[in-house]
C-alpha cells in the first residue's frame, strides 16, 4: 500500500468541537476583531437544539457557594473605570449575558460590568483600582474553558482581553512570536503559517480562544505529542500583578537561567495569581508534508500495540496519535451524519505525521501501514489523499464533543492515566452504570496518556452523578493519575484537587495564592479548594 | 557526496570538558558508587598543570561577603546528625576539602561537616534539625557547577546526594524514569540506552553530575535543541522543604493540570527553595541513526545561513548545531594536540542528526551538504564514518573548556543573545582588550542562541576584569539577552541578575525565597543579589 499524500498543511477548519448549538459560530470564520465581542449564542443554533438553549441556572443556585466579602461595584467605581478605559465599560445587562455564561452552558455568574482594556497600562490601572477597593476580578479570554474558570461566579468585574489583540513582533529566523494576550489562536496560526511556521499548540476552540487564556490554563491539545507543553514553548510573559505592578518577564530567549523562572507561576494558574498581558512563544517550522491515516483496531490491546509500533517506525515524524471507541463513532454518525471511512471496528485510531521530506514520510508511513495491516493490529484503514480528506478524517475525532452534547446531558472527565489501564475505566464505568446511562464513551490523546471519559443521560440526575463521583476520581487516584489532564480546575474541579495533589502541595498552593493575591480578589472561587 | 554513516548512537566518552588538571577523572569511567565520594582532585593531574593546582583562596577572602548570623555546628548537632545518618557524617578536614572547593577551583568554603543521607526521610530529618537550630545548609550533587553554587561559602552543612543513587522505576513503553536525585547522569544514560531510550539531556560533566543537580540548575547542554528544556521533560519531583516537609509532586504523567505546577519552583532554583530528592523524567526513544558532520565556514554570516539551511533541509532530524571560532581550534590544537579535520577556516560548525531511518537521514544530510558546499556557505567538511570518528569530531567542540583552562586564567561568560548579534560581542571584546588578553574566543550552542564567550590571560588581573565587567553584562542587557543562559547564578553571578531581570522580578524572587525559606538557611549567599 503506497499512500497518496496531502503535501500541504491542512487548515482543519472543522476542528472545533463546541456544543451543537454553538457549532455554527465556532466552526465558522475566526472571530472578528470587533470592539463589541460576539456572544457565544448569537451566531445561531445547531443541529439538535432547535428549540433553543434553556436558561442556565445561576452558579450559586446550583452549587453550594457563598459570596466572599468583596465590595460591590459602585457608581464611583464605574466612573473610575470609564476614566481608565473610556467607552469600553459594558454595563448593559443584555450585552453582559454572554460573558456571564460559560460556553458549555453549565455555570452562570451575575457580573454587572465588563471592562475592555487595550494596553498593559490599562490593565494595571484597573487592577490597582480593584485591589484598593477590594473588588473581585474575573479575567476572561475567549471564554472557551471546560471547567467554568472563565466566567464570574457572583458579581466579579469581568476583565476581558478581547481588545488586546495586537501582534507585537515575529522573528522570521527563530520563529519567536510576541503578541498581546487577547490574540485569537487561529489568527496567530494563520499569521505564522504565512511565514512558514506553525503555532506549537492547536485546539478545537482555536477560532475563539485567546493565547493568553491558553497560557493561563496551560492548554494541551492536538500538537502536545510533538511539540510538548507550553511550559517549554512559552519563552516569556508580561503579567500584571494584583496591585497593578507590571512584571516584565517577556524575554525572547530559548535559554535563560537568571534566577527563578517566574513566568511558570502564571502558566496554568487560571488567572488566580495575576493577569497575563503579553506572551512570547516559540513557533516550530511548518512541516513540508503532513499525512493523516484513519485505522480500525479489533481491541484496545491492539490500539496500544499500534501506538508502540507507530513510535518505533514513524519516530520523529509522528505528530498525533488519537483514539476513539465504537460508541463515539456511533454518536458522530447518529447526531452529525458523519460516516465511518473504514469498516466497523471496536476502536479507531487517527495517526498524523508531519515532516520535512514528503517522499521519506510516505515511505515510513507506507511501511508502518503494511506492518500493522499485515500483523492484524489494524483491520482496515484509509489515508488522506488531499487536504479535504484530511479534514474529514480529523472531523471524526474532533466533533465527538459536539455529538455528545447532542446526545443529552454530559458528565465530562479529562483524565491522565497509565496507557495500559486507560480504557479499563471506560469498561468499568459502563458496567457500573448499566442502563442508567445513555452512552459511556472513551476517546482522547492516547499518545499523551490523556483520556476523555464522557457519560450521557437524558437529563442531569443527582443519583447518576453520585454513581460517578467520587468513584471516577478515586479510581484515577488509585492509578496515581490526574483528575484534570488538560482542562484545569476552574470552578467545577477545584474540590477534587485532593485526588491528585497531597495536602502539603495544596498548602503550598494556598501560600502562593496568599503571597500574590493577599485579598483573594483574582478569579475567586476557582482553582483552590473550598476551605473547610 | 554520499556520506558514510555511524549507525549506532555514539557513546561520546570524550565529551567531558573539565579544567586540564581534572581531565583524567572526568573523562574516565563513571564515578563509582563508593560510600566515600572521590575528591575532584585525587584522580591525578592533567596536561598543563604538572606542578599541581595552587591552593584556592577562601571565598570570603577573595569576595566581599559577610557571614550571616546562622548558628555554628555544635557537638550536639554532630551527635544528632550521627543518629539520623549513622556512619555517614564526615568531619575529617582532609576528606572535607574536596567538597569545599568547586571543580573550577575558583571558590572555597570552610564547612566542617558533610552528611550523606540515603533516603528522603533522612533528608527530611536533617533539614528539620537544621531549620530548628538555624544551621545553614549547602545541598551538593556532583559539584560540577560553573558558578560556585555547589560549595559552601562559609561553614554551611554540606548535604550530599551522592548516596541517593537508586533507580526507582523505568517504564519500557512510555520511557518514564523515576530515580533518586543522586544518580549520576552517565549511569542513567547507560541504563536507559540499554532499554532503547536516551536521557533528554547530555552534558560534558555527565560522568560526575547528579540528575538532582541537573534539575536544580535547569541544566541545558547538548540535546536542548532537540528535546527542549527540563521544564518540559521533568514530569515530577519529590522535594524536601526547609522545615522537613516532604512535598510529593512525583507524578509520572505527561499531562497534569491540577493546580499550580509546584515542581517548576524548584527547577533552576539552585537549592535555595528546597532539596530535590527524587526525579521523574521523560526519556525520548533512542534514535536508530546518528550522524555527525564537521564543517568549515568562511564567515559568521555563512554560519548563520548554514543554520537556517540546516533547519529547513534537516528539519526534525537535526539534533545539534554547535559552532566554534578559529581561536578555539588553535587552542585545542596547541594545548591538547587535536588536529582540525578540515581546512583552516574562520569558523567551524558541528551538525548532528538523529533519526529513525538511516537511509532517509543519510539522504537528507547528503542533500544538505551538497547544497552548502555548492553555494559556498561551507568551504570544507567531513562526516563521521564510524563511532570513533563521531567522538573525535565531538571532542573538538567539547574539549574547548579544557584547552582554555590550559591557556591561563579564564574569564567565562555564558550568554543568550539574538543569533544575528551573537558573535559581535566577541569581536567587540577582542578589540576592546587588545593585547591585554591572550585569547578572546567564542563558541557554543548556536541553535539555542547560547554563546560561551571566554577570555584568557596569563593571570587574574583586576584591571582586565574591570574592562570586561560590567561591559559584557551591559552589552548583553542592551540586546535583551541573558547574562546566564544555562549556568545559573550560584555565588558568582548573583549580583548581575539585574542585567536580565527587572526590579519587580527580583522583588518577587525575594518574596518566594522568604515564603519557602524564611530563615534563609538553604544555600545562602547564592542566586539572590546581595541586599544593599
From TrEMBL, chains A, B:
Residues 28-48 are annotated as: Disordered. Its cofactor is FAD. Residues 106-286 form the FAD-binding PCMH-type domain. Residues 29-44 have a biased composition (Basic and acidic residues). Its EC number is 1.1.99.39. Keywords: FAD, Flavoprotein, Metal-binding, Mitochondrion, Oxidoreductase, Transit peptide, Zinc. The keyword Oxidoreductase applies. Catalyzes the oxidation of D-2-hydroxyglutarate (D-2-HG) to alpha-ketoglutarate. Also catalyzes the oxidation of other D-2-hydroxyacids, such as D-malate (D-MAL) and D-lactate (D-LAC). Exhibits high activities towards D-2-HG and D-MAL but a very weak activity towards D-LAC. This is D-2-hydroxyglutarate dehydrogenase, mitochondrial. It comes from Oryctolagus cuniculus (Rabbit). The lineage of its organism: Eukaryota, Metazoa, Chordata, Craniata, Vertebrata.
Amino acid at each position: 500500500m503506497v499512500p497518496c499524500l496531502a503535501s500541504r498543511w491542512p487548515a482543519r477548519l472543522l476542528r472545533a468541537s463546541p456544543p451543537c448549538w454553538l457549532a455554527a459560530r465556532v466552526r465558522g470564520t475566526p472571530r472578528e476583531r470587533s470592539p463589541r465581542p460576539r456572544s457565544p449564542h448569537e451566531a445561531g443554533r445547531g443541529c439538535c437544539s432547535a428549540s433553543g438553549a434553556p436558561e442556565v441556572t445561576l452558579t450559586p443556585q446550583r452549587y453550594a457557594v457563598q459570596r466572599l466579602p468583596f465590595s460591590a461595584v459602585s457608581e464611583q467605581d464605574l466612573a473610575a473605570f470609564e476614566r481608565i478605559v473610556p467607552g469600553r465599560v459594558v454595563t448593559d445587562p443584555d450585552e453582559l449575558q454572554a460573558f456571564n455564561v460559560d460556553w458549555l452552558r453549565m455555570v452562570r455568574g451575575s457580573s454587572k460590568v465588563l471592562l475592555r482594556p487595550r494596553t498593559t497600562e490599562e490593565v494595571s490601572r484597573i487592577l490597582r483600582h480593584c485591589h484598593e477597593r477590594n473588588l473581585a476580578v474575573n479575567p476572561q479570554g475567549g471564554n472557551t474553558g471546560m471547567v467554568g474558570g472563565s466566567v464570574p461566579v457572583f458579581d466579579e468585574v469581568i476583565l476581558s482581553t478581547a481588545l488586546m489583540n495586537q501582534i507585537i513582533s515575529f522573528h522570521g529566523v527563530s520563529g519567536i512570536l510576541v503578541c498581546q494576550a487577547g490574540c485569537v489562536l487561529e489568527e496567530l496560526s494563520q499569521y505564522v503559517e504565512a511565514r512558514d511556521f506553525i503555532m506549537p499548540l492547536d485546539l478545537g476552540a482555536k477560532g475563539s480562544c485567546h493565547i493568553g487564556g491558553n497560557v493561563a490554563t496551560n492548554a494541551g491539545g492536538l500538537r502536545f505529542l510533538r511539540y510538548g507543553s507550553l511550559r517549554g514553548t512559552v519563552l516569556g510573559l508580561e503579567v500584571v500583578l494584583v496591585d497593578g505592578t507590571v512584571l516584565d518577564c517577556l524575554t525572547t530567549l530559548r535559554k535563560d537561567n537568571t534566577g527563578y523562572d517566574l513566568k511558570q507561576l502564571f502558566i496554568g494558574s487560571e488567572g488566580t495569581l495575576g493577569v497575563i498581558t503579553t506572551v512570547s512563544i516559540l513557533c516550530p517550522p511548518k512541516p513540508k508534508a503532513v499525512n493523516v491515516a484513519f485505522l480500525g483496531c479489533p481491541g484496545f490491546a491492539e490500539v496500544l500495540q499500534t501506538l508502540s509500533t507507530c513510535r518505533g517506525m514513524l519516530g520523529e515524524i509522528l505528530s498525533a496519535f488519537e483514539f476513539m471507541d465504537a460508541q463515539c463513532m456511533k454518536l458522530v454518525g447518529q447526531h452529525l451524519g458523519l460516516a465511518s471511512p473504514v469498516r466497523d471496528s471496536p476502536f479507531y485510531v487517527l495517526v498524523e505525521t508531519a515532516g520535512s521530506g514528503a517522499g521519506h514520510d510516505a515511505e515510513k508511513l507506507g511501511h508502518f501501514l503494511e506492518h500493522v495491516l499485515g500483523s492484524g493490529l489494524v483491520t482496515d484503514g484509509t489515508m488522506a489523499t488531499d487536504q479535504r480528506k484530511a479534514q474529514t478524517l480529523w472531523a471524526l475525532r474532533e466533533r465527538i464533543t459536539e455529538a455528545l452534547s447532542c446526545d443529552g446531558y454530559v458528565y465530562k472527565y479529562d483524565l491522565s492515566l497509565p496507557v495500559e489501564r486507560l480504557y479499563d475505566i471506560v469498561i468499568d464505568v459502563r458496567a457500573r452504570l448499566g442502563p442508567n446511562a445513555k452512552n459511556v464513551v472513551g476517546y482522547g490523546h492516547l499518545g499523551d496518556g490523556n483520556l476523555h471519559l464522557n457519560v450521557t443521560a437524558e437529563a442531569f440526575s443527582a443519583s447518576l452523578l453520585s454513581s460517578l463521583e467520587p468513584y471516577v476520581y478515586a479510581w484515577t487516584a488509585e492509578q496515581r493519575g490526574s483528575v484534570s489532564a488538560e482542562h484545569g480546575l476552574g470552578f467545577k474541579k477545584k474540590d477534587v484537587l485532593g485526588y491528585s495533589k497531597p495536602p502539603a502541595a495544596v498548602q503550598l498552593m494556598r501560600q502562593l495564592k496568599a503571597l500574590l493575591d493577599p485579598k483573594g480578589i483574582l478569579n475567586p472561587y476557582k482553582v483552590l479548594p473550598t476551605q473547610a
